[in-house]
Design a protein that fits this description.
285 residues; alpha/beta; Rossmann fold; 8 strands; globular
Length: 285
């Protein structure tokens, strides 16, 4: 099975070092002179989640940066929970990527946990460095009420079969429109990379809901909130709450999509993201 056509080669491959000493894998596609987009994936995933954004017209016209968050993909995976517990570690990781890539006014796109990471970035650093934000199927406010309440097979730390079974069930839940067998195989491969201890630490990551809500209310850059109506991982009510907190935020509903609208309806998502980035760039300041 050849996967070359499913994984566009990046124009740039590199690493960024975080203030707490981790090496973060960063990949870049597209037009080096284009408007800047930073893609932040969800729990268990990797930069390859955004494969349908890498080979499209979106990449032709924009400078696209995607990185593997700590504990994921090709980045460092310490098992000490301290590396996953505070807003600062996630916020400073984002800042390290922005600094290393010398980004001026990027649009941050956060899918699922990526949206929560953006919320932590806002709480620590604010939005003055950003051109805009796109929350995608995100539980940016880590209130358990917004969780889809999936009932997944419980993985056992040292039982590979149970971990694979749980990862398969979670991946299937991420899509209303399912990927092909080849695409699912690639996604399952990178979903198996985070150690069990990392996933456990992230599940136990403390939520400071009031602080995140205050940070959302303070946002003044443009915000697009994208969510699938058929999402069973993060309830659509999470999108409504995020949009209600941020003045001027716009909601975009994908009626026939689940947790991954950027994958399930990539042509529409890429058009909307390009239009949103252009609208951010046209604002003064």
């Amino acid at each position: 099975m050849s996967v070359d056509h499913l994984v566009p080669q990046p124009g740039s491959v590199g690493s960024v070092w975080t203030p707490d000493g981790l090496t973060i894998a960063v990949r870049e596609w597209g037009n080096p002179a284009g408007r800047e987009i930073v893609l932040i994936h969800g729990v268990g995933q990797s930069h390859l989640s955004f494969v349908r954004q890498m080979g499209d017209d979106l990449a032709r016209d924009h400078r696209i940066i995607a990185y593997d968050t700590r504990g994921h993909g090709a980045s460092d995976k310490p098992v000490d929970p301290a590396f996953y517990m505070s807003p600062e570690v996630w916020a400073n990781e984002v800042q390290a990527v922005l600094n290393a890539k010398a980004l001026k006014r990027p649009v941050l796109v956060g899918w699922s946990m990526g949206g929560r990471i953006i919320g932590q970035y806002l709480a620590v650093h604010g939005d003055h460095r950003l051109g805009g934000i796109n929350f995608v199927s995100a539980r940016a406010i880590a209130d358990p009420a917004f969780s889809g309440g999936l009932s997944l097979p419980a993985p056992q730390p040292r039982d590979l079969a149970s971990r694979i079974k749980s990862a398969c069930a979670f991946l299937r839940a991420c899509f209303h429109i399912q990927p092909t067998a080849e695409e699912f195989a690639i996604a399952l491969a990178y979903n198996m990379l985070p150690p069990h201890e990392v996933l456990t630490a992230i599940r136990n990551w403390p939520a400071n809901v009031p602080a995140t809500e205050d940070a959302m209310r303070a946002v003044r850059v443009p915000v697009l909130v994208t969510h699938g109506r058929e999402d069973i991982v993060v309830k659509p009510a999470a999108a409504e709450r995020t949009a209600a907190l941020i003045e001027g935020a716009r909601l975009s509903w994908y009626d026939a999509c689940g947790h991954s609208p950027f994958f399930e309806d990539a042509p529409r998502f890429n058009r909307e993201l390009a239009d949103f980035v252009a609208s951010c760039a046209s604002r003064p300041g």
